[in-house]
Amino acid sequence: MHLRTEIAFIASLAGAWLPACGSDCPHTVVDKSSTVPVDSASACSLATKVNGFTGTITDTTVCQQACNDTTITECFLPYGYVQQAQQTPDGGVTCPPLPDGGTTIDLTCEVTHTEGTMSSGCPVAGRWPRGLERPAPVLEGSSALGSYFAECALLEAAAVLAFERLARELRAHGAPDELVRAAQSAAEDEKRHARDVGRIASSWGAEPAAVALPGGEVRSLFDVARENVMEGVVRETYGAALVTFRAAHAADGLVREVERSLVADETAHAELSWALDGCARSRLDAEQRRALDHARSEAITELRSALEREPDAVLVERAGVPGRAAALAMVDLLEQRVWRQAA
Q1: DSSP helix/strand/coil, 35
Q2: What pTM does this model have?
Q3: CA distance 270 to 277
Q4: Are 63 and 74 in contact (CB under 8 A)?
Q5: Which strand (E) or helix (H) includes residue 56?
Q6: pLDDT by residue (tens digit) across 106-154?
Q7: Comparing 27 with 298, which gets the higher pLDDT?
Q8: What percent of the chain has pLDDT over 70?
Q9: Whole-angstrom Cα distance, residue 5 to residue 204?
């Protein structure tokens, strides 16, 4: 898989869905999580009901029956197991044997709810470091374009902090020098991006909020890898496609100029995320790798949820923001052509 080529191809294909995220940007909060062992026949039956083969089953009735709990809102099988299942011409599924020759496999059962509202258009590109509080939304009086790009600039600034922390943690964990240098370079890229995208926001009457990440101890390699899967392998890869799409479709000259200058950097950051994922997995055990597979599946599901609403028409026209259909098409294509290749 050549990630750079795939991202450009996917962003191009998604243009067919031209009329993101609207004024209400939901995210999933897990209130309760537990596991239930299911046998091979039950796992195979459940694999026919997953959402887009990510492993997540969003039919609450099915989940409540399988989990034997009427409060459950969604459930999922391990990503690696579902990924190996093969669709048959009649719409069924031919399932693989259970991992490690076992007789049961864990079904994760969750009680979740959705919350969160933003007025900026809620872009999803870039890394948001764990532990960083999101500032209050930008000024209510600013335009849809100003609010959107103020939020974009905020995410770029947050990515500076994320990559600076990542470089420190990679060095502490003895990662290859080229990964450490790539993370440091990415932080410098994001400083420039924050300034440039901030110029767009200012031109439309909005100023990005400032962000600061409290210091802390070096996290475990697994915690670093889990954040990288969600914020890098999933969100940054989508973000690179999003920037490529906006660069091709923005009618506003300043937006088009800035977006085109970001494409190569954001794609390189996505490539770094994948390289880090491969390096980390080589040092983690089987259970931790399965947990990373689930984190990837969870991040894809959250990304779909965040893109379910239509953006303001002016964002589509002036800023090249993909409408709902185009944004979800990019996620579908990334899942088919990129994320499924990860296991």
Answers
A1: strand
A2: 0.68
A3: 11
A4: yes
A5: strand 56-57
A6: 888 988 776 544 333 445 556 776 666 665 545 444 578 888 888 888 8
A7: 298
A8: 80
A9: 33
CB 256 within 8 Å of CB 250: yes
| DSSP, res 231 | I
CB contact at 8 A, 80 and 293: yes
**Predicted confidence (pLDDT) at residue 6 exceeds the cutoff of 60:** yes
- Residue in this structure with the two tokens 């391990």, named with its chain if needed: 78
Beta carbons within 8 Å of 4's beta carbon, 6+ residues apart = 267, 271
Dist CA 60 CA 250 (whole Å) = 40
- Distances in Å between the alpha carbon of 202 and those of 3, 120, 194? 33, 14, 12
Give pLDDT, residue 1. Answer: 54
142: its two tokens: 């600013």
Provide the residue type at 88 as one letter: T
The Cα 182–Cα 187 span in angstroms is 9
**If we measure between CA atoms, which residue out of 6, 11, 5, 20 comes closest to residue 319?**
20
Give the torsion sign (CA, 90, 96, 98, 101): positive
What is the spatial distance between Cα 294 and Cα 303, in angstroms, rounded to a whole number?
14
pLDDT tens track for 164-221: 999 999 999 999 999 999 999 999 999 999 999 988 888 888 887 777 766 678 899 9
What sign results for the dihedral spanned by CA atoms 24, 30, 32, 35? positive
Tokens at 11, concatenated = 């962003």
Contact 20/247 with Cβ under 8 angstroms?
no
pLDDT in the model for residue 182: 95
